[in-house]
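Worked example 4.2. Below are the chains of a multi-component assembly; read each line carefully before continuing.
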Amino acid sequence: GDQVKQSPSALSLQEGTNSALRCNFSIATTTVQWFLQNPRGSLMNLFYLVPGTKENGRLKSTFNSKESYSTLHIRDAQLEDSGTYFCAAHTGANTGKLTFGHGTILRVHP
Amino acid sequence: DPKIIQKPKYLVAVTGSEKILICEQYLGHNAMYWYRQSAKKPLEFMFSYSYQKLMDNQTASSRFQPQSSKKNHLDLQITALKPDDSATYFCASSRLGNQDTQYFGPGTRLLVL
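Applying the procedure described above to all two chains together yields the following structure tokens:
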């Protein structure tokens, strides 16, 4: 089964609304990264998390290692937030391997 | 200026041929990686290198060979190309080769006919 499960798989938001994306991990996870893949295909870094919470503008992300999940909250969604959001897990092995979820496709509409 | 350069951006190849995907990073990082993104699959880890030494290889096929001529270069040679190899190949780098933040290049989109 999937070691990193993302939900929802797709999401449509009206501009100005809020939402949350989630990743559940079935592998022991030490750190988490969140990325946004834009329509051109580039992967942009959003967050790097050890257990805890970080905030950057309208985005806020939490990684709870004890309960094996991470969330990404989007506040006041804007059209430019559209794209595919990926979470990725580092496990305990120190090889640098990131295990990715399948992604959440987000469309923000006027 | 782009900090991770991948060349070419697009590549079309015929089945059975060989291609080299280029990756250079100008972030001063010591670890580099290759990932593959195929249609309807999540990004898949392929290789990791730290200080030009192989750390991990999760690629089942020996047709995929990374080549590191300098610390900031990690090219990917693919031989005997198959249509199933069609994917976008992403190079990434991090300061250290363990659980450090990884930064991704723009990708090379490969189509094998």
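Take a moment to check your reading of the output against the notes. The radius of gyration of chain A is 13 Å. Chain A touches chain B through 24 residues (CB under 8 Å).
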